[in-house]
Amino acid sequence: MTIADFDPMLTDEEEALLPSDEDVAFYAEHGWYLSKKLLTDDEVDALAAATDRYYAGERHRRLPVRPPKLAYWEPAKGAVQRHNDYVHHEHDGIGAILSKRLIGAVAARLAQADEIRIFQSTLILKPPVEGEPSNIVPWHFDKHYWAASSSDRMLTAFIPFHDCDEELGTITMVDGSHRWTEVGSDDTVVRHFADRDRDQLDDMLARNAAHNDADIRKIPMVIPKGHMSFHHCRIYHGSGANVGGRPRQAISLHLQDGDNSWRPFPLSDGTLASYNHDVLVRRTEDGRPDYADPEFCPVIWRHRAQQGG
Question: 36: exposed, middle or buried (C-beta count within 10 Å: 0-12, 13-18, 19+)?
Answer without folding.
Answer: middle
